[in-house]
What we know:
By secondary structure, the protein is of the alpha/beta class. The chain has helices at about 20-40, 70-75, 90-100, 135-145, 155, 165-170, 175-180; strands at about 1-5, 45-50, 60-65, 80-85, 105-110, 115-120, 145-150, 185-190, 195-200. The strands form two sheets. It has a seven-stranded mixed beta sheet with strand order 3-2-1-4-6-5-7, sandwiched between helices. It has a two-stranded antiparallel sheet with strand order 8-9.
Amino acid sequence: MDVLVPFAASRPKTRLAGVLGPDERAAFAAEMRRDVCSAVESAGASPTVLSTDPIESEWPVVVDDRPLTEAVNDRLEPPLAVVMADLALATPEALSRLLGTEGDVVLAPGLGGGTNALAVRTPGFRVDYHGASIADHRRIAADVGTATMVDSFRLAVDVDEADDLAEVLLHGEGRAARWLRDAGIELETTGGRVTVSRSTPR
């Protein structure tokens, strides 16, 4: 199955500004994208990066600077999957489960109400990434066929906030986790919660 990997190339991951500088955020986002594309490929699928700007990539890239919903819908010809580029915990096994699950529309929810990955096998489905998109996608899928949910921790964690970096350090197995360690990002337990701190200055 072909897989679109949406990637915001301009000013990526601004909510990590308290931990990483602009160049670092761009480098870290690129490593997450490489991890996701590599996992997609190892799962037996063919990734194409859907980027807001031209980038260098080991995988095919199409450039579209429109909002995510419009850019994906313009290319949504089933069978097709969409896997976000910031799923730093994604593994070939988790993606194989997504791609191998039967159903007209297979959805992998993200924490907080988003949709981190989906696979579409029926015409008529369109994405809507605004707001609590997982609820909208269940409804849209039910209108055109069946909606099947995949419960996966590794596909549920998308990296947006500084606290998400702790999950990458705890559970990541790829380039993104190594990049964080090399940058001096470390786990820290504060008030019973695990977060991150930095051992080296920016």
